[in-house]
Each structure stands twice: as C-alpha cells, then as structure tokens.
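Hey Z.,

So I finally got round to the alpha-L-arabinofuranose thing we talked about over coffee. Here's the setup:
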Amino acid sequence: MKHIRYSSKLSASTLLILLLVVLAACGTSSGNGGGSTSGGASSCASPPKLTKTTGLKVGFSQNENTGPWRLAETKSMQEEAKAQGDQLIFADAQSSATKQIADVDNMISQKVDVIVLAPLTSAPLARAVMDAKNACIPIFLIDRDVDHSKAAPNKDYVTFIGSDFINQGKRVADWLIQKTGGKANIIELEGTTGATAATNRKVGFDNEIKTAPGMKIIASQDADFNRDKGRQTMQTLLQAHPDVTAVYAHNDEMAIGAIAALKAAGKKPGKDVTVVSIDGEKDALNAILAGELGTTVQSSPFFGPITFQNIKQYGSGQKLSDWIIVRDKQFTIDNAQANLPNSF
Ligand code: AHR
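And the result:
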C-alpha cells in the first residue's frame, strides 16, 4: 500500500515536469503562433504562422552589402523597420552562402519573430529556409528566390517578393533587337552563377534573342554582378571577340565596367557597341544621358515598404500568394532625366 502511494506521487510530478517541458517548447518564439521542434523536425504550421503585427523583431539576412543596389535595398529595409517601430536584426553574408546560412541560424537562436532573406544563390540557401521552418519561424524571401524542389512557397516559406527576372531579360532583348535592326554580335555578362537573378535574366534574354536570326550571342560569362569584374571580363572577352557590336549585362554595375573596358580598347560605347542592362541605378541613368548606355530595365531595390506591408498582413492572418511580383519600369533616353531624382 505504501509502495503504491509512492508510485502515484512520482507519476504526478513526472507528469508536471512533462507538461512544463511541452509548454516551454511551445513558447520558443513569441510571435510565431507556437509549434515545437525536435531533432530538426517541426510540428508547427506550414508555413509557420505569425500571430502579431506590432513590436516585431525582424531578422534581415542580406547576401552582400556593397554596390548601389544592395545598399539601397538595405537602407529601404532599415528605414521601413524604423517607420513601423519594429526592430531589425541585420546580417551581411559578404557573398558567402555558408555565412548566410549561419546568419539565418544565428537569427533563429536570437528568437526573432520573422526572418527576411535575400538569398545569394538558389540551391544552397534552401537550407536556411528549412532551418527557419524547422524552428517554426516564418521566413519571407525578397529580391531572389530559392530552388522550389528544395523549399517551396506557402509551405516552407511564406512568399517570394520580387521582380520577374525572365521578363526583365526579355524586355532588354526586345529593345536591343529593335535598336540594332535585328543584327548584332552580343557579349553577355552574367550575374552570380546560381542566383535566380542571373539564371532567369539569361533565360529571358537568350530565348528572345533566338527569335531574331541575325542576333548572335558570341560569348557569355559570369562577372558576379560586380563593376570591376565586369570591366575585367569585358577586357578579356574583347581580345577574343573584337567583332562585338552589343553588350548585355545582367546588371548596371557590370555594364558600367564594360563601358570602361570598351573605352580603354578604343571603342565608342553607344556608337560602335550598344550596351544594355538591368537595375536602373543613378550611374546607369547618367550613362544613358551621356549616350553610352542604351537602356536599363528597372529592378527595384526598394523592398522595405512592400515587405513590411506583407509581413503585417500575414501577421493578421491573411494568406499571401506564392509570388508577390514587383513591377518594373524601363529607362531610355526618353525618361532617364525625369527618373534621376528617384534613382539610387
Ligand atoms: O537580385 C537582384 C540583383 O542583385 C541586382 O540586379 C543586382 O544589382 C544585385 O547584385
């Protein structure tokens, strides 16, 4: 009898401990609507929920923080967080996928309410998405997407907010075909290999160019979305392809680098060689006004307002679409001057 009473006392306290453990696990993050993790597998909603809209602790993982486009994106996020009264925990991955995964893991350890990720590359960064999901923290992708076979929107992450990169490439190609009368020898300077911005800008441009038999892509090489790498790559490619008549750069920074290389080789950008690109940064608009760049299709870096607006909508229980498309303008000699004041 004495033994039986001891056992029931023990099981009551064991139950109490178990209950406390379960409650602690459910409270791992204040704003994600609960959920528990064990050995990497999560038991929260897919995608994890956000149950508050104010006083948010938001992690923002930037893939690198150099160049006008990235700096403008970071500033936009910082300014909007401040305007909303939310706290922004910022990390710069310095162009390293490994560091960016570690940055996201660090934000998870800091128990942020929500994570915003601008992924460097598509396949490796799916891992960071899954880490956040397994920790029951909702994650939003902005500017670039990840590989959907590894992590999917409205399941593993909330949504992708960004431009239609395929369409950007197509618009540049259409302008170039028209401008050159459908005859050109093109050098293509690609963005960072594995980034959706590079992959899709190539697909959109190359497929459209194939529709014009006189347009030939004579070389295509990675210059990492970087001005000086654009200059160096162009310098090298020019030696092998002096017959170039057009340059398509996946961003303005590489286009400006290519313009410098063309000038150094004694060619006149805008006359001997038509240069076209994507982004719409201030230096590119000035290059259009100087007659050295033909067109740039905008890729807006101003993600702060649209990102926070969607985070708040999600926090108030709204379901978001898989892809929130950012609509882009196109700049030419006709509107470059008027758009200079709003450029970055
Ligand atoms: O992902 C967007 C691209 O990344 C921008 O075009 C480019 O400038 C940046 O590095």
